[in-house]
Amino acid sequence: MEENIGTPPQALFDAMDEHIGERVANGVFLDGGGLYGTEDAVNFVVRNGEISRVDGPYAEVKEVVGGWSILQYDSLEEAVADQEKFAELHAKYWPEVTVITTVRQISTGPEESGD
User: Fold this and answer.
1) Taken in order 98, 103, 108, 111, is the CA torsion positive or negative?
2) How far apart are CA 79 and CA 23, in angstroms?
3) The model's pTM
4) pLDDT in the model for residue 112
5) How far apart are CA 26 and CA 109, in angstroms?
6) What's the rounded mean pLDDT across residues 29-36?
7) Which of 111, 27, 100, 104 is nearest to 65 (CA)?
8) What tens digit of pLDDT does each residue of 82-105 get?
9) Would you call the peptide bond into 57 cis, given omega within 30 degrees of 0 as the criterion?
């Protein structure tokens, strides 16, 4: 989402409480939370075998990760459909901002060839 756009409206918080509560109840939601902005962020960059520390804020950053969640679905199709519902909540209750929601699988380690 965009950096420094302010606090989401209470209606979005209320809708998200219901949305997440339903997923906790049915065992889909495993963990998640919001993240602070980049003003206190610390990055370590590894480049050409050298490590450097870069503290925020980052003038070049236009979008930041605002939150995260770990959910477990029986299929990718279910995950995609549910994330569309998540996006719809933001479109309805906070339409003036740009929010990107991304579905990614969690890697459990190196995949064996042929899997």
Assistant:
1) negative
2) 12
3) 0.73
4) 62
5) 27
6) 91
7) 100
8) 999 999 999 999 999 888 899 999
9) yes
